[in-house]
Amino acid sequence: MTESQIKQAGLKVTLPRMKILEILETGGEGEGARHLRAEDVYRILLTRGEVVGLATVYRVLTQFEAAGLVSRHNFEGGHAFFELERGTHHDHLVCIKCGRVVEFLDEAIEERQRAIAAEHGFTLEDHTLNILGLCPNCQAGQPRPS
Amino acid sequence: MTESQIKQAGLKVTLPRMKILEILETGGEGEGARHLRAEDVYRILLTRGEVVGLATVYRVLTQFEAAGLVSRHNFEGGHAFFELERGTHHDHLVCIKCGRVVEFLDEAIEERQRAIAAEHGFTLEDHTLNILGLCPNCQAGQPRPS
DNA sequence: CGCTAGTCGAGAAAGCTTCTCATTTACTTA
DNA sequence: TAAGTAAATGAGAAGCTTTCTCGACTAGCG
């Protein structure tokens, strides 16, 4: 079924694409690390002994984004995070110490944003809301190594 | 009074710093263009015949940010925008075509964010909310050249 | 099985930002 | 006011993320 997603996007089903999609699905190793930088994906591939160029990772992630399979987020600090698109919009709560990301959705905020765009005569194409703070672990002085 | 701000930050009052602060205050030329990239500041200085290195612009803006005189925003696209800090928090409505920026503040959204951070056990250190859309001019097919 | 367009990997290159370091400047002390 | 000192500057090199180039390779089709 992941194959069909790639095909629907008008892309050929190749090994690098399958591997990258799989890493985005599983987060590489443990749980929850589903917000990955391009270099994270590349490093995970290397760890597994897979030979995929960094340029290919960027290229494929960009293609996936264009195809709507993946969404790209610009948190603070110059590099983008990629996340598998699951059809449900959400915003992010980001720990400024360990980088942990929690997703949330608040309909009251969504509604206010629509109203604000309208008030100023803007169309609403997209939005990014990132709340930055310290997660419970990092407040306790025990940053978990992600 | 701008001098005193610089001094309070523990920085020496130098010509480059005064000039950069002045550009941030006036926006360089016309009205409203108060969200400038480092390179914009640099270019405006050049236009005025001032000799200030790009490295100095970056250095000074970073120092001003640390001192709370300036805030840095990462809208889409790899480069940061700097804005004079006027003590009042606000979020941004950004035109994805002409780059025009409108500031807004919505207390309902602010309140919901505090609640969301608390629900997840996060401290709330900061947040960035950028609404992306088309401004009235660009919807009309007449992008104003900023 | 062979063709062809699409894809890949590696390294070069681009764009933004930071670093290095010799020179210059602001502020302090006499 | 002159001199000394620590900080700041400017120019270019370097760093980082991301994109581009291009010859080699491969998926998908006939």
Protein architecture, described:
Two copies of one chain form a homodimer. Chain A has 146 residues and is α+β, with helices and mostly antiparallel strands. The first copy, chain A, contains six helices and six strands, in the order ααβααββββαβα. Chain A has helices at 2-8, 15-26, 38-47, 54-66, 107-119, 136-139, and strands spanning 36-37, 70-73, 81-84, 91-95, 101-104, 126-133. In chain A, the strands form two sheets. Chain A has a three-stranded antiparallel sheet. The first copy, chain A, has a three-stranded mixed sheet with strand order 5-4-6, with no helix packed on it. The mean pLDDT of chain A is 89. The A-B interface holds A 74, 76-78, 93, 95-96, 102, 104, 106, 108-109, 112-113, 116-117, 120-136, 139 and B 74, 76, 78, 93, 95-96, 102, 104, 106, 108-109, 112-113, 116-117, 120-136, 139. Chain B binds a DNA duplex (30 and 30 nucleotides) through helix 2 and helix 4.
Summarize the entry for a quick read:
2 copies of one chain form a homodimer. In chain A, 40% of the residues lie in helices and 18% in strands.
By oligomeric state, this entry counts as homodimer
- Extract low-pLDDT stretches of chain A: none
- What is the rounded distance between the termini of chain A? 30 Å
CATH topology of the largest domain in chain A, which one? Arc Repressor Mutant, subunit A
Q: What number of structural domains do the residues of chain A give? A: 2
Strand percentage of chain A: 15-25%
How would you sum up the global shape of chain A? globular
Percentage of residues in helical conformation of chain A: 40-55%
Assign the structural class of chain A, choosing from mainly alpha, mainly beta, alpha/beta, alpha+beta, or little secondary structure: alpha+beta
Structure annotation, total helices of chain A = 6
The CATH architecture of the largest domain in chain A would be: Orthogonal Bundle
CATH superfamily of the largest domain in chain A: Winged helix-like DNA-binding domain superfamily/Winged helix DNA-binding domain
The count of DSSP E runs of length 2 or more, i.e. the number of strands of chain A, is 6
Strand order of the largest sheet of chain A: 1-3-2
